[in-house]
Amino acid sequence: MNDAFEFRLLNEFQRDFPLCPAPFAELAVRLGVAEKAVLGGLEKLRREGKISRVGAVFAPKRIGASTLAAMAVEPDQLEAVAATVNRFKEVNHNYEREHRYNLWFVVTAASEGRLLATLGAIEKATARPLLALPLLEEFHIDLGFSLHGEKQKNTAAVRPVHPAAPIGESERRLVSVLQEGLPFFIRPFALIAERIGASESEVLVRIRRWLEEGDIKRFGVVVRHRELGYTANAMLVHDIPDHRVSEVGRILAEEQAVTLCYRRPRRLPDWPYNLFCMIHGRERGEVEALIADLRRRHDLEDWAHDVLFSLTRFKQKGARYV
């Protein structure tokens, strides 16, 4: 597989993936290659760790329940505590970050009750308290971004986040299969339909509806950014007055450099910040310069902030909702 073909697979199909009976054949037509080349290319990228899967990225708290959580762990105990956290199947991301709260992980579960039970079990297993920081408002959440680095303006909106309504059994079965990613098969949706006892057309209609309703943020290639050179990744947090946080969040979310932007609760006195942004870059200096520029241009310099660069990736996998 040549570099140009690999790059197109990675860059062009993070969203707007063809939702049709033979999607890999459709990709082959667009790329001017054989379907076998597309299937083989995607399998190679997955084997090399450059992609985690091809499939649905569900919106937070639209199906199931989830939260960001943080712990302050003694440096000499960090790896052992991270390994304990990783044993919970509900944990899908787990990173070391530069801060007193140095272990950050995402917990996803089928319901709010199950989520709370898991958080309690993690505290018991690690013998440490955690900060639960659930999503309150979403401004921009879409880690599908151009690998060319060209300038593009994000589309931002203020969307309050509420607990998800329970889904039916047939939808639950579909989510359970989709969270694993599409099988690299000539008729992947037919294979999924067979597994859940539905028709291929029913599966495609449901996925399209979830996309239209926002339950699925995007459907396509899910890249692993560190393996593609994005190793200087920072979480920028601010303490914004409550009456301004939605306005400031929407403004920052429209910045091309910001890949994620959302509001989460403060946890005083330990955690005073309520606005979170993620900035992904290749060099630390580049990211620091972007952050300084953002704060200057948007008159944020008088508000308390912190920058938490990612250090060790302990776990990264797709969220498991059911």
Write up what this structure looks like.
The protein is an alpha+beta fold and 322 residues long. Helix content is 35%, strand content 25%. The strands form 2 sheets. It has a 10-stranded antiparallel beta sheet. The protein has a two-stranded antiparallel sheet with strand order 1-8. Helix 2 (23-31) packs across helix 3 (35-47), helix 6 (169-178) packs across helix 7 and helix 7 packs across helix 8 (200-213). The protein is globular, with a radius of gyration of 20 Å. The two termini are 36 Å apart. The mean pLDDT is 91.
Strand order of the largest sheet: 5-2-4-3-12-9-11-10-6-7
Low-confidence stretches: none
Number of strand elements = 12
What structural category arises from helix and sheet content?
A: alpha+beta
- Our measurement of the CA-to-CA distance between the termini, rounded to an integer number of angstroms, reads 36 Å
The proportion of residues in beta strands is 15-25%
> Helix amount, in percent?
25-40%
SSE sequence, one letter per element: HHHEEHEEHEEEHHHEEHEEHE
Describe the largest sheet.
Answer: 10 strands, antiparallel
